Structure prediction request, 198 residues.
Amino acid sequence: MRHGETFFNTQGRVQGACDSPLTDAGLAQAQLAKSYFDKNNIRFDAIYSSTQERASDTARLISGQEPIQLKGLKEMNFGEFEAQPENLLPKFRPGSRSFEDLLVPFGGEDIYDVGKRVRKSIDEHLQGSDAGSVLMVSHGAAMWGLCLELALHFPEGVGFSNCAICEFHYNAGSYAIQKLVLPTKNFQTIEFRETNHD
Prediction:
């Protein structure tokens, strides 16, 4: 899932490798996501987050536990655009729904490399284990990169609002997405009928 709202989110600043704390609204969003898990009797056997404060704080608020931090779940690096106003970012290429490799000339990451990094981190920590139900708190672009890596198709206009939850079934490196839940959008839920993605 994605972290709650941050100070930089409210300022419209780029927030990838850099970090800023959760706002009061972000804290409330984490509680909203927690209420979804509680209502659906979802309990976690393991809690992971990226090493960034906004993700680890969100994981802690939801679970009441200290998350295991994974560098591989970190947000995409936006290079020279870090902490700058979002309107300075390059515009997507026609027909694209991501930055693709547009940030690389500015010291940033390619979204496809981000997806590979996130998937590798998940695989390294879950393959061969009987982890049960796992919560991983990450970031919008990192999650989008993973979905691109898995060749998942989302309806037009659908993105990851703060505290968006992607539910997957995972088995030995195979990912099957079940649903996307958007707590801050009145718990809008999109169900998927996807086959496994290896």
